[in-house]
Amino acid sequence: MTAQALPGIQPPRPIPINDRSSLVFVEKGQIDVIDGAFVVVDAGGIRTHIPVGGFACLMLEPGTRISHTAVALAARAGTLLVWVGEAGVRLYAAGQPGGARSDRLLWQAKLALDETARLKVVRKMYALRFQEDPPERRSVDQLRGIEGARVRKMYELLAHQYGVTWNRRAYDREDWDAGDLPNRCLSAATACLHGLAEAGVLAAGYAPAIGFLHTGKPLSFVYDIADLFKFETVVPVAFRVAGKAAKGRLDLPAERAVRRECRDIFRKTGLLERMIPAIEEVLEAGEVERPTPPPDALPVAFEEKEPSGDAGHRG
Questions:
Q1: Residue 207's closest CA among 307, 111, 104?
Q2: Engineering a disulfide at 266: which of 22, 146, 277, 311 sits with its beta carbon 3.0 to 4.6 angstroms away?
Q3: 65 lies in a domain?
Q4: Does one domain contain both 137 and 279?
Q5: Residue 248, by phi and psi: left (phi above 0), alpha (psi -120 to 50) or beta?
């Protein structure tokens, strides 16, 4: 997504990702720039101002329309726009907030293509996620299996802790209402985390698709990074809300309650401040030197000013 300067509007200076609020969901409204402000206009003409540069990600649900001017302003502000389905369970498209850097892309790809380096990265992610070293002499596939078994057990323990009836992780992307309440809460919670993780990956200058434990999907690396924080943030939230809903202690839809609590837990845990350093930490574990410019590379014609925002921003 390329943004050009808007007539009469000074392009905003991107705020670094760790200084922003996490995300906001928008539904049933026209998103536009009016009098220089990024606003949502509802059916009655009421405007709600959104400080677009202060958020890492805007999740656009069914019933929203957005103008070209608003998309351009979001791009200038380095804010990720994500078009999602009902309650965020499906991701249809995303507007890149910056531009992935070629040096970081090459480094990420080199790590992913080197089996030894890839295994080191996966082992580091395992250690960060479970706070212990992974078993020795295990392949990536074996570690994936061990991790899957631990995750299923953690689901069971959290379900028992919050008094939730739990069978297994199962949902139908084509039919949101077909899933049971705990699975719908989990889907809503992980959608929040994935949106935030994608914003972090892009702001850091890396490619969402080049993953290490997860592979073959457009957001493989996003899933890798999100999983590092999943069980300390959104998964307990999902089961806690599901438990309250099962006991009739919620005065609003469960999915909306999940979003609010995810927003609060992101702030409480300082997730945005930790995400980009975590990305760098897991990639450094691969022990592969970052690419250097080739000898025949031409020098820059003009020195660039000090860049604002994060490494992936185009500003």
A1: 104
A2: 22
A3: yes
A4: yes
A5: left
